[in-house]
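Researcher: Batch entry, complex prediction.
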Amino acid sequence: MRILLVEDDQGLAEALQQSLEREGFVVDHLSRGKQALTALAVTTHDMVILDLGLPDMDGLDVLKQIRSKINDLPVIILTARDSIDSKVKGLDYGADDYLAKPFDMQELLARLRVIERRLGTASSSMIIIERVVLDTASHKVFLMQPLSVNGPKDKKNDQQYKVEVHFSKKEFMVLKALMENAGRIQSREQIESKLYNWGEEVLSNAVEVHIHKLRKNLPDKFIQNIRGVGYIINRPQTNTLN
Amino acid sequence: MSIRRYLVLTLVSILTLITFIAAIHGYKASMVRAEKLFEQQLVDFAHIVKGLHHTFDKKGSYLIFDGSQQSVNTAPNFKTSFAFQVWQGHNLVIQSTNSPIKPIISLQHSSTHFREVNFSGQRWRSIYLANEKSNVSNSNAPMEVYDEKLVIIVAQPLDKQFLLAQEVILAAVTPMIIAIILLSLLIYGIITHGLKPLHKLTAALSNKQSNDFTPLTLHVDNTELTHVVTTLNQLFERLNLAFERERHFAADAAHELKTPLSVLKINVHNLAQDLNDKGKNNITNLIKPLSVSVDRMGHVIDQILHLNRTNPEQTYQNQKIVKLKPLLQTVIADLYLSIANKQQTITLNTDDVMLQGDELSLQLMLTNLISNANKYTPKNGEIKVSVKDLSRDEKKLSHNKKTNEKTNEKTNKIVIIIEDSGNGITVEEYHRVFDRFYRVGGDQHDSSVLGCGLGLTIVKHIVDIHRADIVLSQSKSLGGLCVEVLFEQNIERV
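Model: Structure tokens for the complex:
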């Protein structure tokens, strides 16, 4: 995936470029808003990482112009500004996601992957958490059955065999929403909004029913309930720093 | 006391007082003059009667009365308040109908004089006019009985005199009383009009919020107030600039600090990845302290910025209706990673409650409070977050009483309670934890916990901005700290 990085701080740009390239992204770096707009007019980038504090023009204006020309280009905003206030503005102007400096590299990568999967450019359409495998392309869910006692973190996944678990379309959507946002709590309202269109009638306990069905067929404690808040699937602990 | 009241009251009372003193003096002087006038009138009248009597005397057409018959010649009954008698010797020659038969004034007096006498149930002012000529002519010789003395007595009732005088004087004074009333109204009107620009200025100033530094758009014509308004506007401008500079300083400092911090953070990440790729073991020993320190620096910078931004004296609040439930869900979701890391249980118990306030500040406040609960509660601990709408209970009560009329505007009482099963804070420290950079236990604070002692100061700022109350206590159900934030607001329900 080809990313256009618009960031005026040389040090940050270099470090980011290094990180992203290690993860397999192709990164072009520009330090001015006007350059970025010119570049986007001719080249084909899959997405943009945009810093809001640019020397030649306001990052939000750059975002506005990008949106007016290329409607569906994913944009992630980086900013050191008033963290919550410009978040709202950025998302209002059509940014896909938002990160406040200083951010965690893991955080940025997680968000890039969500966009990658959405665009269908992901090298794999599989989301794997613990023993659960969700294929976003074929809309199928598999459970990996361990051959050895080495545990689910064993890297030789090929040695394991997958068993498909059948879920209804809505149940699959609930699971997808939770797995895509692993590590972030999803409230009942958030999940509902992904399941139903405007005006479609929602039973008050619809989400609970779906979750109940999912839990019955998935490993224990895979989907956790935070009372009063929502549901969560914990992110696999792959962070080297923890 | 307002300037208008003071001016109107003093001016009107002084005006009234002076006018009344003048009127009283005028009244007294007029009365004296009137008395003289009436006396002169009596004298004139007496002389006319005397003249008439002489005329009749010469013509011989008057009657002589003998003492026994007592028939008196009465004057024609003309309408007058005057009473008069004409005595020749001891005989009553002519008299008015309203005079008694006896002499009004004893006839022994010889000279002309004024006297006040009583008869016919009234008090009279009378003149005693004796025939001086005969008196003078007979002054040398002893008075003979035959030489009959001519006495003319004229009297006018005193109350009649008095009433007449009073009528005249009152007629002169009445316009003055009307003038006082008119003047008072005029003074009131002029002062009100004159003070109008001052009132406008006061209204414009009192409508201003304490953090509103926009210049006054007030049009005043008088030179005095124009100066005041211009000076005020200049002051506002300077204050605004000063505050703007301070705000920008904070934002600029944030930018300058946050960007290098991001570089540091990403490079630490890259370094860790590099070392990992090269198969170096025990890298966490080297990298972890670095990464923790970077996080800590980021935290302190964030908190100082938040402290600055929530300073009640310089925030520009964006007040609106905030839905508490989604807000709390977001806050807990954002903090969930650290809660899950300590295997703590968190529960949220809330209805759909609305609150008027600045959403960003409220989010910051809740984040700080729940993050504190997370930090100071041991592993496997418990955190409870609940929201209670106290006004709703009251509403139910009032509904039972069927007095549920004022639903359009009412006091909204909402309490947000955050409890944990940690060690809590001792009562002695309750008031100190809101101080800047103070951490529980002072120097002995567990420094392994990320923090800088600003979290609760920020919370207090936000609580103050929303005119809410914060109460610390020991949690009854969990044993740790219980923080209650109580909001009391007037919300117009839609």
